[in-house]
Design a protein that fits this description.
The chain is an alpha+beta fold. It folds into 4 domains: 90 residues; 89 residues, no CATH class; 74 residues, Sandwich (Immunoglobulin-like), CATH 2.60.40; 103 residues, no CATH class. Helix content is 21%, strand content 37%. The chain contains 6 helices and 21 strands. The strands form 6 sheets. Strands 15, 17, 18, 19, 20 and 21 form a 6-stranded mixed beta sheet that branches. Helix 2 runs antiparallel to helix 4. The longest helix has 29 residues. The radius of gyration is 52 Å and the shape is rod-shaped. 11% of the residues are buried.
Length: 389
């Protein structure tokens, strides 16, 4: 039955089945695997090349294994073939199991990693968004990194510390790669990240100097941390308009002025309000005689002067020009007092004649001095007393 009268019995069918089984193992399961030891083991278990080298009676596996043997021996041989197949399958399972972790990394430590999605610096009321993940690493695994041309080596804790000096304001980029030993040889991972460098900014706000002046253009700078544009300011008791890189505030009247700024942050409209600014009049100018310094002057110097001027305090930041609109002059000579008015800033001919008759030691008094400035603001200025020498 196993050999058959025409040598077409079940032994030949069994060999074909075993050959198909080996072909399936080698061509489908172990095709892309480098496992020469396993291939040799399976060939040894399922071997059909049994003839010794130099033998003269060449027989087939079928006749050598089953021809002329008792039934019990044939059963034992079939059992052995079953065991060989099972052993082959077991060897394949063991090998594939060892390959499950062959391409994976071994880690011993876990650490939470927080990666900001939005900026790590936000304004009050803004929204911070971050991605949190679980990172695994092996502190015993040594690796190197090349970042912006510099070389780094892990410090024994499975990490590399990178320090960069912020020498330039703006977004700074760090790029490079990490080199390390992987399960299947040398590996490389790209590294790209960036950080923002800002200019140190000191803001000192004197509480008693929050002042806008009436009748002049008050320049102001407005900024909100983390917001570079889209600022929409408004003021109470006045107007505000863009000017260069800042704004100009023009108060309407004395009192209080408040600045409010609206802007959009992370898609939400936000409103910010400053403190109160006091609205004051500009300081009054001081009267002076053009070309005359001091309170004692020679008569010819006074006569050569064109007239009166209004001078702003030297520590006043605004460049304002005030005009003398009128003044009166009094000169007492020999017990008699003469006076003459002027409807402008110049000395009139009558006033010069009075000065010409004055003597050394006489006093020239310039009084009722009136001046006007930007926005129609007018002032009554102090008197000036000049002694002739």
């Amino acid at each position: 039955m196993l050999i058959g009268g025409n040598r077409d019995g079940q032994a030949y069918v069994l060999r074909n089945k075993i050959e198909e089984y080996k072909e399936f193992i080698f061509n489908d399961i172990l095709k892309d695997l480098d496992a020469p030891g396993l291939v040799s083991e399976i060939n040894g278990l399922l071997n059909f090349d049994f003839n010794k080298k130099g033998a003269t009676d060449v027989r087939t596996w079928e006749t050598f294994t089953f021809e002329g043997i008792p039934l019990m021996s044939a059963v034992a041989m079939l059992t052995k073939i079953q065991v060989d197949v099972q052993n082959s399958e077991s060897s394949i399972y063991d090998y594939l199991f060892t390959r499950i972790d062959a391409g994976t990394f071994k880690f011993t430590e876990l650490e939470a990693i927080v990666k900001p999605i939005s900026s790590s610096a936000i304004v009050k009321g803004g929204e911070f968004e971050a991605q949190i993940s679980l990172g695994a690493y092996d502190p015993t695994q040594s690796f190197t990194a090349t970042l912006n041309g510099g070389s780094y080596t892990s410090d024994g804790s499975g990490k590399i510390k990178v320090k960069r000096r912020g020498d330039a304001v703006g977004m700074q980029k760090i790029s490079g790669h990490i080199d390390f030993k992987g399960p299947e040889g040398d590996m490389k991972l790209p590294v790209n990240f960036e950080f923002q460098v800002v200019e140190p900014n000191l803001v000192v706000s004197p509480d008693k100097m929050n002042v806008f002046y009436l009748g002049v253009e008050n320049p102001v700078s407005i900024s909100i941390s983390g917001v570079n544009d889209r600022l929409n300011p408004s003021v109470t008791n006045g107007t505000i308009s863009p000017s260069g890189n800042g704004f100009i505030v023009k108060p309407n009247s004395l009192g209080i002025c408040k600045v409010t700024v609206t802007t959009t942050i992370d898609g939400t409209q936000r409103t910010f309000q400053s403190g109160e600014f006091r609205v004051k009049r500009v300081p009054a100018p001081s009267p002076a005689v053009h070309g005359v310094k001091g309170k004692t002057v020679a008569k010819n110097v006074l006569l050569s002067s064109e007239g009166m001027i209004a001078e702003m305090p030297q520590d006043f930041e605004f460049n304002l020009k005030y005009d003398i609109k009128s003044f009166n002059m009094l000169v007492t000579t020999g017990g008699y007092t003469e006076q003459a008015p002027s409807s402008g800033y110049k000395f009139t001919q009558q006033q010069k004649n009075i000065i010409g008759k004055a003597k050394a030691g006489d006093r020239v008094i310039l009084t009722d001095v009136k001046a006007s400035g930007p926005g129609g603001v007018s002032f009554d200025l102090d008197d000036i007393v000049i002694r002739l020498n």
